[in-house]
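Troubleshooting log. The previous run stalled partway through. Resubmitting the same two chains, unchanged.
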Amino acid sequence: MSASIVIFYILAAIILGGGILAVTAKKIFRSAIYLLFSLMGIAGLYFYLNYEFIAAVQIVVYIGGIVVLIIFSIFLTHASGKDMEKPKLISVIVSGLAAVFACAIVILLINNYSFVATTNTAIEPTVKNIGRQMLSTTEHGFILPFEVVSMLLLAALIGSIVIALKPKTEA
Amino acid sequence: MNEIGLTHILFLSAILFFIGVYGFLTRRNMVTMLMSIELILNSVNINFVAFNKFLHAGKLDGTFFTIFIITIAAAEAAVAIAIIIHLYRSSKSIDVNDADLMKF
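Second attempt completed without errors. Output:
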């Protein structure tokens, strides 16, 4: 057991433990905090795989953005100290069995599949390489999706303001 | 089992995906369902990064897909939470069984 393997299993335990607690916790606020731990573990996994830029984006967008947004929406819509309604027992059993069997099938398939790696020379996923290729207009550039996604973000920004705006008649 | 390879990370992301599916099926509350969706999207991102690293190291496509998925997930979460807050104002509940505004 080298240190690398131990670190991977610690990260896996944080991710899966956080995930399981996030979907089973009784109080909604705790559920959000467990989700935070799970996402933090995933950022750690990206660091482990040497994808520093993705890890930084994960921390900024998910942990700093989405989880904070979810926590604010919990404060706006719940008495967060109360327990949530329990799911029906039949629903827990059926969904649990479905998830476990589907997971078993996927793991079996992954185990039996032999992946073939490319022999091309590796490109380091540094910020420089990512930025150059993302904004390039040549064949493998991603400038068009980049622009489209910026339009999507603008639309989402305006859309969420319009939807969450208080109607004027109430004011 | 001597080294962490692609299959280890794929196992991890498969388990995380089905944890998200389980949460999505059992929870009846919109905010927690949104959290389950975030878990599912994250497991997909792990897959993209792992395939990029272990199988197609000569390209950066997996990295770009991950970045775009994170961006779209952020937009989706913002719009979903706006809808949830609006629904809470109009019906005082965010249980999916109570949402029948669009019922004909």
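Takeaways: The first helix of chain B runs from residue 6 to 26. Chain B is about 75% helix and 0% strand.
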